[in-house]
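Section 5.1 Outputs to date
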Amino acid sequence: MMNKRQWIVLCLLAAGGVMQAQQWPDTPVEARPGARWWWLGSAVDEKNLTYNLEEYARTGMGAVEITPIYGVQGNDANDIQFLSPHWMEMLKHTQAEGKRTGIEIDMNTGTGWPFGGPEVSIEDAATKAIFQTYEIEGGKEIEQDINVTDPKQQPFSVLSRVMAYDEKGKCINLTAHVKKDKLQWKAPAGKWKVIALYIGKTRQKVKRAAPGEEGYVMNHLSKKAVKNYLSRFDRAFKSSKTSYPHTFFNDSYEVYQADWTDDFLEQFARRRGYKLEEHFPEFLDKNRPEVSRRIVSDYRETISDLLLENFSHQWTDWAHKNGSITRNQAHGSPGNLIDIYASVDIPECEGFGLSQFHIEGLRQDSLTKKNDSDLSMLKYASSAAHIAGKTYTSSETFTWLTEHFRTSLSQCKPDMDLMFVSGINHMFFHGTPYSPQEAEWPGWLFYASINMSPTNSIWHDAPSFFDYITRCQSFLQMGKPDNDFLIYLPVYDMWEEQPGRLLLFSIHHMDKLAPKFINAIHRINNSGYDGDYISDNFIRSTRFKDGQLVTSGGTGYKALVVPAAHLMPNDVLAHLLKLAQQGATIVFLENYPTDVPGYGQLEQKRKTYQQTLQKLPSVSFSETTVTPVGKGKIITGTDYARTLASCNIPQEEMKTEDFAAALNNGDNSNGWSFVNGQVLCGAEPADYSAVEAAMEAIPTDLTVYTDESVAALNTAVDGVVRGKAFVSQANVNAMAQVIEDAIAALQYKGADYTKVDEAIAKANALNKDNYKDFTAVEAAVKAVVRGKNITEQSEVDKMAKAIEDAIAALEKKPASTKPGTSDKSPQTGDSSNLVLWISLLFASGSYYDGSGDLQTHFIHIVRTGSVDWQNYILFRDYLCTHPDTAGEYERLKLALAAKLPTDSGREDYVQDKQSFIRSVLRRALSDMLLGKTVDIRIDRPLGSHHPKHTDMIYPVNYGYVPHIFSADGEEADVYLLGVSEPVEKYKGRVIAVIHRLDDVEDKWIAAPTGVTFPPDEIEKAVNFQEQYFQHEIEMLDPNGDQ
């Protein structure tokens, strides 16, 4: 008899012949591929709706998903308003024709993406928190202006809290003390930090909105906002007596900066057990000590809860009430992806770009985009579906493989197969535009599409490809999930470790957001095993029954793995222990979780957690250990393959050495090998992951290291040879080691002692006999320690400051006047010797008007054409043309001047004034450049490498505008879009500015005259560099104004 492995090989070999000769069973509509169906301008008519649906049905499609978007240029007269009576009539016709042709009709719950539109009021729009901090010296009556400094937020921001904190941790709620934008408060003695929280609006608009549907993105975190949004659909469907669609769809969560909602503080206190407003300083601390990380983690968990309850659950409940189901893409959201995916009827993942399969002859070209959705990312949706007992997992498929009419079906198939092995069984093409039959070739198009439609040359062979997909999906849909392991998703580690405040789990950045987890998934996979991810909430409802771990969705698993997690709620750990005692196998890889997440009642929770932790087996993780616990066992270890093998669970058949031998007929004649837990053929490439990891470990800022050590590192990087076969794996690993050694050998540059030397020279120039006590200066000079490196520059600067402070504190001995002489030195208030005063004026940079003892004017001397020259002129002219800003500047200076008598007054005066000036200069520069044609010098042309980060290749031309300076003192940087070849110079029009919110400089977007780009295309073009900065894009409107 044949064993199981031989049967698999036989089936694989026979699939091309025997299976095709057999009659495949009847397949349901869900087994056929679906497609996102873009209605451009909703300019549809009954005749062409019928034509489109008949074409789709003829080739084997089973579903279309209506998504109205912007209209076709020049066809405005035929646009139909979304949800209008006319639009609903077109939907009725579509539903009737779908029923006739056997095509399921779904629709987006809106136009474009994300959800929003003209009926979303500013109150229901996406919301963000705005924090402003004021330093106040107590012991007196305080009258402080409290208002939003961002003029774009002033019309609709609402003051939520004003909190004061002293240096001892005391907190006072001052919200009631603010009247008409003024804080009036008798502050107790001491230094106080006052933090005001305003609830503002992101002002994000719907992307690709249909005509007339432009408007704000809704607040997904607000129950009321979501309810109001959905009520519009109820009115349209019920008034027109139209049947609700089979499925409502939601695209990827592309809602930016929406980090708050009106009742967030109340929700936070109820869920986390303490008041966030009492900890604003820790919450906002960019140095991220442990307390700050824990509070931010609690904030992120609350955001996740609100998104799950107020949006996902409410939207799905609404759809069910109306006889529909929901399909949702959770990625990109700030929530726990497993819980968000599992909350809807059909979780949907997304493929983005073309995967690298190393298939010889598979065509790639210059427009091929890398797929950010690897196996670890794709499995979030299918994992949620499996553990929650959902029948289908869908995928947005073939997004950005290449460009229109350049994608072949041979390129599509491997990425479709990647979806299938990731658990997808219900795919949707991205996508197909509605196009009238009479439209000239190539018909109506949508840019983000492989154009799976009748005008594409691949349409001729599409039926065969669709038939392949249908056979695969019908087979997969008839089966049940059969992964052996549940894999714990350590979301609390991610929430605590990642910097910033709002954390969006975007598919494009998961390698940075969850690198440890991704590495663990690949190590598990390479060990020959597969699994589904499970969240804390689903662990809580998992039971041990009939020898298996059974989730709330009814799916059974043989073991649960916790991969290198450090944080875990106590009740989850206790439940895992209980499951083991009942008979389950629980595996801890690398370590036990060592602590609880969050900040509320921390010490009490830690005490309870330690009690639970002590009940786990005491082991050394350096060895694989199997410890009986009750009726089950706990397995621990660091070696993934050995530890998982101790579960006595067979590896996946197609990942075994025996399977490779079966493919080789037992004699390696076919070139198959078993390497690192993977079955590989002779054409398989070496594993470069160690090289990539070494590259990733290269410090981002190499300017702090000596030229010699950086040159050695660059040599190591340049020594990497790509394209080696797996038989040369040792050589590839050696390349990685050379890079790691070069990183370890990096040497810091020495610190800059220029200020120290200048201070010492100043001290040496003084005659100490002229001063009462010179010992403090001598001590400060003696305390100078040489040999510090550049990372210790702050310490060196403190040495210089100590000398300068000691000099400033010197007191001169009383002057003596000999008999018969007079003291001719000028005195304060003496205007008799104007020649001497004018000399002093230009020596000191100040002008005195002779009316008192205060300096009232300052003269600044700068070089014509310099950065300072430009900035002074810009600032002056902006204030002259913007009296509101000039008034704001006046009030700021008066408020700062009032603080000058305090110790920190001068420092605050300079710092706050400079901050205001920088913000004005950024606005002034926007006014000056937006819409203007400028000469651009390109110093980093398209296709060139970054001078420091050599793995970064510029996908656009990048340069600067000569003689125009940004706030960082450098010439204004420009991304040049719309020019597809490297250039050295270009005259282009500035169409947008990228305001970096966590940096001092802005970046400009230029394009050929007459060419423009929408914000999301700009975002994609500059993402290679701007992904590392929080930013917003300011566009030039079509009339040329900002």
